[in-house]
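Chapter review: from sequence to fold.
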Amino acid sequence: MSEPCLVSVIIPVWREAATIQASLQALTPLRVAGVEVLVVDAGSDDGTVRLAEPLCDRVIVSGRGRAVQMNAGAGEARGDILLFLHADTRLPFAALEHLRDFAVSNRQWGRFDVRLSGHRLIYRVIAWFMNRRSRLTGIATGDQAMFVRRSVFEALQGFRPIALMEDVELSSRLRTASPPYCIDDPVVTDSRRWEQQGAWRTIWLMWRLRWRYWRGESPESLAKVYRADVRRPTSQS
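The token string follows.
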């Protein structure tokens, strides 16, 4: 393995040809500053790998599933801090400065606040509740660009290879190491999912899945519910 760096950004992707170039170009200033950017592809057949290769440090091919992909990326990363980023999420301009502050703190992991890209008031309200819930519970989701010290991630054996809720499950274990380091300079997540499925319907789906997860339903059965719902025809809300 080559010389370590402070931060490795790990991006799990599948069929992201339409957006991967813009996503990686947004990370160019971080790469110039020494941040490692790894793309972990799950066998895309739409040219994602070809488009990503010139714009990142390395493309890794792994099995499919965010947990599997993120673990694969972490296993190849050089950074002391591992940051897991969705392909449709943009880090704030000062992200590296915030992560340097985290590095000298006594916290072991953390996340950013989130903002949705849409301009409707409902998206501001959704983001406020997401951030407030996260601060109250100490639980983060993948949309919030979770980050963790490599040593802690490895000690906890990374993400559990489950079909859904891998971010919530890992957050629950990370809380035993420390409360999260919360950065209020938000990442911006694409609101297209909310726009396509309808804001209120998506809120209801997310809370319903989370409630069923806390009641002990398996991530595999929840993933089937999620896939069935997002494939259903929608009307905008």
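Two observations follow directly from the output. Confidence is low (pLDDT under 50) at residues 233-237. Residues 5-188 form a domain with the Spore Coat Polysaccharide Biosynthesis Protein SpsA; Chain A fold (CATH 3.90.550.10).
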